[in-house]
Amino acid sequence: MGMASSSISRFFGYTLFPRILPRLRNFDFRFTFIAYLIAQFFITLRMLPRSHPYALPQSFGTYGILGVLANVANHIEWNVRNIDRIIVFILFVTAVILLVLQIIGFFVFLLVQSAQAAPLDIPSLFTISTPTDDISYKLLHRIFGVPDFFFSGSPDPADAVNTPFQKATQALFKFYSLTVMMVGGLIILYFIFTVIGEAMYTGSPFGQRFATIYAPARLVIFLFLITPAAHGYSLGQFTVLATAKWGSALATNAWKTFNVDMGNALKEEEAHLVVKPNADDISPLVKFMKMSHICRAGYALYENRTNIRPYLIKEGEHIPMPTSVQAAVEFYESGNIAIFFTTEAYATDPAKKSLCGSLTMRVDNAESPIVQGIYNQYLTQVQAMWDDAGFRAYGDKFVVASQPQSAGSCPGGNISCSYTPEQCENSDGTPGPAPQTTSASWSSCDSLPPPELVTCFRDRYQRVFNTAIIDGISDTNLASDEFMNFDMEEEIIKKGWGGAGIWYHKIAQVNGDLINISFKVPQPRKTPELMTRVALARQATDHITGGSERFRVDNLEGAQLEEANLTSAERNIAHSLYEAHKYLFTDSLLDRFNLTGNPFMDLFNLVIGTQGLKSLQENRDVHPLAQLSAMGRSLIDKAVFNVIGSVALGFGGGFLIGQENAALGEAVAGVSGALMTLAMLGIGVGFLLFYIIPFLPFIYFFFAVGTWVSTVFEAMVAIPLWAIAHLRIDGNGLSGQAAANGYFMLLEIFLRPIIVVMGLVASMAIFSAMAVMFNDLFSDVTRNLSGFPVGYAPECISGTLADYGSMRSSADAFFFLLIYAFVLYMMAMSAFKLIDLMPDTIMRWLGTQVRSFGEIIANPPTDQLISYGAIGASQIAGEVGDVMKQGSQTLGGVVGGMTRGNRGNET
Q: Burial letters for 817-830: b for 16+ Cβ neighbours within 10 Å, e otherwise?
């Protein structure tokens, strides 16, 4: 009865319960074999006697690890003489404990879900959410044309499969694979006869060389790799495509992870990615406003016109100048803004709409709030100059002082004749008090306004324009401006790792636009209408074409006087304007370049300019790519201005030669040539800084993507050969010595994309760090090389030495600028080469000598493209400059000869 009940209980226990505890009891937690090895270890060290029961074979399985350790502890004499055995025992027990804890921790990690983060989803690492936008997927899709492999369907017709070229490629692969399969079949027959022959000769089955384990497995691998699958590709080639797909997805997910919650690809705030440039030199604007105020004062004095103000005028329509650039752009229908200083009555008269001259302001990217704000400030400051009491006092005094002295009071109301430079601005740089106006007499304005007033107004408004740009590029404005937003766009992220280099060029785009805006302060467009009328009257019968003399009115006579058709009041106003032009401008065309008299400083200013961009030291907290792109754009814009000046001088030199004034003409032409050379130098350096360096990440990265695709294509061609490499009957290992490198090639195809991404991050980090350090050290190095100690202050030295120091520092600044640009260019080239070098060389860490296409190419196409591009741009720019210079001189000579011939005929 007892046996029956026991059997029944075991039956129900076996069928109804999971029997977990009995199974755990049956599991040998003693780890018998490990315990045996530990016992042998301690017996070898004589910490257990050789006669111990654990040393006997029949005791195997009767003890566990804890039993062995307990017995060892009992046999140790715990005293100083056995310190070596005690230390060994303690270290061994510690290792066992750590191993147990490690195993427990491993199972806890697998079984317990962390509350801090989601568990790692391994399959998601090898898939992407937007395959139809991924650049690498699209490249492989278009090359190999396998439907529904890299992605299913595509809205882009360019991504269509089964094109004639793809069909031909697939047919070629199919023919090639079948050919290699036939060769493999012959090799298999050869090995069959070889094995049979060796078996007959040696008497051993399959012969002595036959690897009974590996040879059949290699045959299976060969058949797998060479077996045709679909679309002309074998199973091995589909393995390559799958490996490339998974590796690309892994790199894309890594790139997305790098950009998650980090804003932009440089992980910098917007304020560190844009420079804060100075406005361009506003001297021409200040001088023009002086001329306009002199014109205004003349009409007020002699014709009692007091309603001249700035207007926007187009055919059949005019409005007062707004301070909103958006309103001005809409008025001109997105064209450039022209500001006319005239009366409302003359606004509809084409001949009189430029009564007191006009300005023009070129507008780009006006959709950006920051850009709009800066342009708004430009318009506001033009209005401020027109309303400025100091400018008005300057115009009033100049008109009176430039006329012949007369008795009595000045007509036209109250004016100020006592305005001095000290009244222009206060010691803190703020505008000084408004000048006091009185009913002055002619004699009270017996001298022209001092030149220091022009300098004061220029410096004061230069600071205002600079501040307008700096305030416009504030942190708050940058954060709210979509145009200046550097956050990684979702559209770029969707392109996957193949588009990782696209974003970096935005740094050059934004900073180039800011530099462009800094150069677009309003510029003089037309002189006052009376000056234009006098110049046209002279042009008909006079060979004078330049300088202030073309505006001289007091010696007009005959046909010239009739052509000018001036009233008495207009003659007086025109005379004041002529005197003002002589006073504010020189007769030399070089005055437009604001020469200082210091040849080295003038040379430096002609090449790079002094107002277009703050020194790099003042933008030390800005990322090097932003610094260099902004500096390059400044150089290019300045160089374009110098090209225009060179062409004008070349025309003038040719004209003088045509007028038989060869000596002066050759001198002017020589200046034109030198200026064109400097302009081409500025274009060359600017091209490197603005176009090449910011474009390097994309160029190197895109070629790295192309190299990876080439490696995939190489593997697709090599798969049949790799399959044959497995056909070996001798040697150890599944692959054998001949086929081992193929597995490393597959591993490279899988890892290369993510290593390329790592190379991009590494190159940007290294270049940024090196550029920052170089920028910090460059000023100290150049001071020492120039012969001046750190902290040198030129104002502390007087006399000839100070003059020499000033000239020397300007020359040094010019040449050190070139050195700075080329050193940074070389730093960028060496840093961004990591994008190519890392994936080409990192496989050596696996101890393999496998080489891909990227390593075999001696001169990478990236280096050739960049080098030839820079050299070619410089050569083309030089040739174009020579053509423009020679063309302008030739045209000037023709015009000069025709003018000389006409004068000869008239006489």
A: beebbeebbebbbe
Give me the residue label for tokens 């257990």: 48
112's tokens? 């317990």
CB atoms within 10 A of CB 775: 18
Lowest average pLDDT, out of 204-208, 321-325, 682-686, 799-803, goes to 799-803
What does the DSSP assignment read for 850-896? ---HHHH-SS-HHHHHHHHHHHHHHHHHHHHHHHHHHHHHHHHHHHH
Q: Which of these, 220, 247, 248, lies nearest to 236 by C-alpha position?
A: 220
| Whole-number Cα distances in Å, 242 to 70, 263, 418, 502 | 55, 32, 87, 26
Element (H, E) at 318: strand 317-320
DSSP H helical ranges for 260-282: none
| pLDDT at site 797 | 40
Question: Hey, is 128 helix, strand or coil?
Answer: coil
Higher-confidence residue of 54 and 817: namely: 54
- pTM (global) more than 0.90: no
Lowest mean pLDDT among 28-32, 204-208, 501-505, 677-681: 28-32
DSSP reduced 3-state for 1: coil
- Closest alpha carbon to 480 in 787, 271, 771, 793: 271
* Complete edge-to-edge strand list for the sheet that includes strand 337-342: 317-320, 309-314, 337-342, 358-361, 523-526
3-state secondary structure 504-562: CHHHHHHHHHHHHHHCCCCEEEECCHHHHHHHHHHHHHCCCCCCHHHHCCCCCCCHHHH
Residue-level pLDDT at 809: 53
Which strand (E) or helix (H) includes residue 196?
A: helix 164-202
**Whether the Cβ atoms of residue 525 and residue 549 lie closer than 8 Å to each other:** no
For the stretch 579-634, pLDDT in tens is 888 888 754 333 444 555 555 555 555 555 544 344 455 666 677 777 777 777 77
Compute the distance between CA of residue 638 and CA of residue 718 in angstroms, rounded to an integer: 55
- What lies within 8 Å, CB to CB, of 49 at 6+ separation is 43, 55, 75
CA dist., res. 481 & res. 368, Å (int): 7
Nearest residue to 293 (alpha-carbon basis) of 415, 408, 375: 415
Q: Are 635 and 660 spatial neighbours (Cβ–Cβ below 8 Å)?
A: no
Structure tokens at 614: 């703050």
CA distance 213 to 215: 6
With contact defined as beta carbons under 8 Å apart, do 321 and 387 qualify?
no
Tell me the C-alpha distance between 377 and 467, whole Å.
10
Query: How far, in Å, CA of 677 to CA of 64, rounded?
Result: 91
**DSSP run (H or E) holding 99:** helix 83-111
**Secondary structure of 158-175 in HEC code, one letter for each residue:** HHCCCCHHHHHHHHHHHH
- Within 13 Å and on the Cβ side, how many CA atoms surround 350? 2
CA 125 – CA 119 distance, rounded (Å):
13
Rounded Cα–Cα distance for residues 369 and 378 (Å)? 14
- What is the average pLDDT score of the chain? 75
Nearest-CA neighbor of 351 among 513, 185, 140, 570?
Answer: 570
CA distance 229 to 146: 12
The gap between the terminal CA atoms of the chain, to the nearest Å, is: 155
Q: Can you tell me which residue has the tokens 């992605």? A: 151
Query: 587-595, long-range: CB within 8 Å, 24+ apart, which pairs?
Result: 587/546, 587/547, 587/548, 587/549, 588/547, 589/546, 589/645, 589/648, 589/649, 589/652, 589/668, 590/649, 590/671, 592/284, 592/645, 593/645, 594/281, 594/283
Between the alpha carbon of residue 224 and those of residues 168, 237, 650, the distances in Å are 24, 10, 76
Do the Cβ atoms of 337 and 363 come closer than 8 Å? Answer: yes
What's 120's DSSP letter?
A: P
**Helix, strand, coil: what percent of the chain each, to 5?**
65, 5, 30
